[in-house]
Write a structure and sequence with these properties.
The protein is α/β, with parallel strands linked by helices. The chain is 37% helix and 15% strand. It has a seven-stranded mixed beta sheet, with helices on both faces. The radius of gyration is 20 Å and the shape is globular.
């Protein structure tokens, strides 16, 4: 008799990240490839962060701090919250998975907008819950009114990606606050803010002020994007002590490695570097969006480090392949829930010029 695997694997969607450069070289036979497919920062970590990583590497024969004590203390100081209310994990994705396992079971419901972060569809099959998807509105934004009407007694988890991935749109904190006032106390709302530092609608810390009023609110953030640490996988959640204890109980110990802890703790010491990254990102965003519009393309109103581009009646696969053959890797919209679109991360100025030139040739 062959080995039998869990039936839930049949319902579990495969997460496919952006194509790496080596694979693109082989597939497209291109020697000079730039990657604009994974919403990574084009700029490496601060030099002091690299030094901290090197120092931590010298102790790699020891297990990491199970409680990420230094990192959590510095996050607590940064946001003026208690360390015991902060969960740290191997990327914010791990907290999403842990939250589904800790909060949901068969009969429960997980509610989220679509298209949104492509990890969300994994949560229901893993936990046995039922997923409820609410379409974005015509402006590619979360329809919070429609989401609120879908909440029932069975709803355990509501996910709001703000700014949203893959569309890049964001809602102001006032809209989020009004939505939270309509959510019953038994429902945990995870506000997924991986790109929050890059939006210009509100102060990035404005949602932190909502935490005391809403014990069922969790803010999910990451070092991957604006801090340029995607390769080390370190994310965190600000919420309640109960939420932190719940997600910690279903995760393996030592899940955040020593290098990631050291890098995150040091990165928090260099707010000026983070602000400079944001400013450069916004400058590239303005330039890229303007040129895309000049090419006759419609884009969502990005508040992130990427553009969500409506290709109209053009062939999505042909555009992605054509860009690949020109050495530019982007993300196709179909796997992200948006057929007829592509998602393009902002790189350096030179990389963005190359992307725009290649796209203009294809159009």
């Amino acid at each position: 008799m062959p080995v039998r695997y869990s039936k839930k694997l049949d319902a579990l969607p495969h997460y496919e990240g952006g194509m790496d450069i080596d694979r693109a070289r082989r597939m497209y036979e291109a020697s000079d490839v730039i990657k604009l497919a994974s919403n990574e920062s084009p700029w490496g970590p601060h030099p002091a962060v690299l030094e901290a990583i090197g120092a931590a590497a010298a102790g790699s024969n020891r297990y990491p701090d199970q409680y990420a004590s230094l990192l959590r203390r510095r996050l607590a100081d940064r946001y003026e919250v208690e360390p015991g209310t902060i969960a740290v994990a191997n990327g914010s994705c791990e907290i999403l998975l842990a939250a589904a396992l800790a909060l949901c079971e068969p009969g429960a419901e997980i509610l989220y907008a679509w298209p949104s972060f492509s990890m969300y569809p994994q949560l229901a099959p893993l936990s046995g819950a039922r997923e409820i998807r609410v379409p974005l509105n015509d402006a590619y934004e979360h329809d919070l009114e429609a989401m609120a009407t879908e909440i029932t007694a069975a709803t355990q988890l509501v996910l709001v990606c703000n700014p949203n991935n893959p569309t890049g749109t964001a809602l102001p904190v006032a809209a989020i606050a009004a939505f939270l006032n309509r959510v019953p106390d038994h429902v945990t709302v995870i506000l997924d803010e991986a790109y929050i530092e890059m939006q210009v609608l509100d102060d990035p810390d404005a949602t932190v002020d909502l935490l005391p009023e809403h014990p069922n609110l969790v803010l999910l953030r990451t070092f991957s994007k604006v801090y340029g640490l995607a390769g080390l996988r370190c994310g965190y959640a600000l919420g309640s002590a109960g939420f932190r204890a719940a997600v910690d109980s279903v995760r393996q110990p030592f899940d955040v490695n020593s290098l990631a802890q050291a890098a995150g703790a040091e990165a928090l010491q260099h707010a000026d570097d983070m602000i400079a990254r944001v400013e450069r990102t916004i400058a590239e965003r303005i330039g890229v969006e303007e040129e895309l519009h000049d090419l006759g393309l419609r884009t969502a109103a990005s508040q992130t480090n990427f553009s969500w581009i409506d290709l109209g009646d053009r062939d999505e696969a042909a555009i992605v392949e054509g860009l690949g053959k020109r050495g530019v890797i982007v993300r196709a919209g179909t796997p992200l829930g948006g057929p007829g679109h592509i998602r393009v991360t902002y790189g350096t100025e030179a990389e963005n010029r190359r992307f725009l030139g290649a796209l203009a040739e294809l159009l």
